[in-house]
User: What shape does this take?
Amino acid sequence: MRKIIAAALAAAFFMTGCSAELPVQSSSPAQVSESVPQEHSEKYVPLNYEAQVGMWLPYVRFPEYMQGRSDEQFRKEVGEMLDDAAAESVNTVYFHAHPMGDAYYRSDIYPRGEFLDGNYDPLAIVIEEAHKRGISVHGWINPLRLQTDEQLRALPEDYIIKKWIAAGEPFVKLVNGRWYLDPAYPETVDLLRETAAEIIGKYDVDGLHIDDYFYPTTDEEFDSEAFELSGEPDLADWRRDNVSRFVKALYDTVKSYDRKLLFGISPQGNIDSDYNSQFADVRRWAGEEGFCDYIVPQIYFGFNNENSPFLTVLEQWEELTQDSEVSLVIGLAPYKLGREDKWAGAAAELEWINDPDIIEKQIAAVKESSAEGYALYY
Assistant: This one.
């Protein structure tokens, strides 16, 4: 894992001249000697940066450095990974604490994640090791995505999602073999609020981060009963309002603990798809106060992409946030380096193979834009 990240970081940052800006709030490293849940300290001052250089730590990588590891082994690998990141100016990591109805922290709500087979607290360790290095940690959650039907059957009967399903409650829906929360109901919004409160309340995280798992389908049957009862005339507008309602609830929960904590959203890069496929009202979130502090569109496109060329999409997001207090951080995709991009069109299909400097060029373009930072997905 360390070698993979070190190589990707080196490719991304080589000759970019990027250095981390001074933090908005200074902070001493968290001094925690054991990997047990931290009770959130009122004295802790969140560590965040005006210009983010972010990095996602996704659950799909957990088998490489978490599964089958002891406390000491996990801590060592996390420390090495963060050393590599800090050496290349990364100042913020988004740790996947709640990927799919599970927890990679000590939770009273959710079962532990399947890749966590050791008796330690991954989130606590990541926070300790990151703060030692002056790196901010944002707990990353997927709000609506839950377990597959097969995974769910193996979980205890007192898990709230199983209790809802057993009782025939409409708050969760099965889509293509996976369960999802339905954001139309106040019960699901309350659960998301409790999820945020559990993480923020137990740990000295510096913020909370959600990505692009909003409505899992455009199928009208997904929430037809709730829509009919709502009396609203337009399904798409109603769904966007539902998503915005839980987004605001998460934002308000974070701010209720500490106004200095940040709440960020990472939607997909195509604005029209956000708006019309996932019912994510990015225009509202970026333009109105009270939904997020920063937004990280995943502009995972090459310069020659036939449908969504990088510079065009970057400009669209600049326009969207032009008169906003929301910080624009651009999500980039070093994971695509050396890979065929089969959805990019014939002219761009091999761009990520033929141009090994593409991430370096994109970082340079971001620096020339009005964006306040960038984040890297490996």
The radius of gyration is 20 Å. The longest helix spans residues 235-257. The mean pLDDT is 90.
